[in-house]
Amino acid sequence: MKKFAVILMTLIMVFSFTALMSVRAFAEEPAAEAEAAAVAETEAGSNENDLLSSKAMASAIVVGIVGAAGAIAMGMAISKSAESMARQPEMAGKINSAMMLGLVFIETAIIYALVIAILVIFVL
To answer: Residue 113 sits in a domain of what CATH number?
Structure first.
């Protein structure tokens, strides 16, 4: 089960990185086509709106996936720590401390994904 979780988290992170990095490639047109489209286009800001909306969609997808993966990881950690505390009640304090530290690291990864998604929307 642990190997499956590691593979799942790796795939989610690779998908998230690929989705965020490919937004600009799919949203922009090549240079020659962009000039022709600019002449034919009557509305000046639609290209920027398309780019912003595609960045927002990709960021929302990435944050959703990372949030779901983090929730699954937290659930697994809490489940295993509760099981360990039930088996060895005398070690409950140390197990609880280790679990809380692990949950902090998982939550930090989720917050980093949110910050990167916000940066992609407003900076790139």
So the answer is: 1.20.20.10
Q: How many domains does the chain have?
A: 1
Counting Cα atoms < 13 Å in the Cβ hemisphere of 69 gives: 25
Q: What does the alpha-carbon distance between residue 56 and residue 58 come to, in Å, rounded to a whole number?
A: 6
**Rounded CA separation 99/107 (Å):** 12
Q: Are 27 and 54 in contact (CB under 8 A)?
A: yes
**Helices (DSSP H) in 28-45: which residue ranges?**
31-40
- C-alpha distances out from residue 36 to 29, 40, 73, 117, Å: 10, 6, 49, 31
Q: Structure tokens of 23?
A: 């937004």
Contact 82, 32 (CB under 8 A): no
Query: pLDDT, tens digit, for every residue of 61-103?
Result: 888 899 999 999 999 999 999 999 999 999 999 999 999 999 9
